Amino acid sequence: MTSPISGARHHISPGTTSDPPAPGDSCRLGVLRKGQRAVVTGLDEAAVVTPLPPGELERRMIEMGLIEGARVEILHEGFPGADPLAVRIDDHTLALRRAEAHAVLVTLG
To answer: For the whole prediction, is pTM greater than 0.70?
Structure first.
């Protein structure tokens, strides 16, 4: 799945801190904070450093329900380092590493 957001690919460090995105903004799932909701718009596996073979992270994300149009909400951030994330995806909840969540492109809403 490719992102309609932009053709550019960016590496985002899991430790990046900045102002939280506002409703309607496009960003990565990994930058959201507890209570924020968004809709998945695509996946960008190239933005994440992973030991997995090419395509494997995307396959796993799709199997977990992180597909275009899925509604997500950050339920909890682990401590310390806010990792992992508890993410509600439509009607189920899963734990996801923040670094891997950076591969998921979303629009806040």
So the answer is: yes
- What are the residue boundaries of the structural domains of the chain, listed by start? 21-39+51-88+103-109
CATH top class, domain 21-39+51-88+103-109: mainly beta
- 67-71: long-range pairs with CB below 8 Å, 24+: 67/1, 67/40, 68/1, 68/40, 68/41, 68/42, 69/39, 69/40, 70/39, 70/40, 71/37, 71/38, 71/39, 71/40
Q: Amino acid letter at 5?
A: I
| 79 has a pLDDT exceeding 90 | no
Q: Looking at the DSSP assignment, which residues form a beta bridge with residue 87?
A: 74, 94
**Count of residues for the chain?**
109
pLDDT tens column, 86-99: 999 998 999 999 98
Angle at 40 between CA 35 and CA 45, to 5 degrees: 110
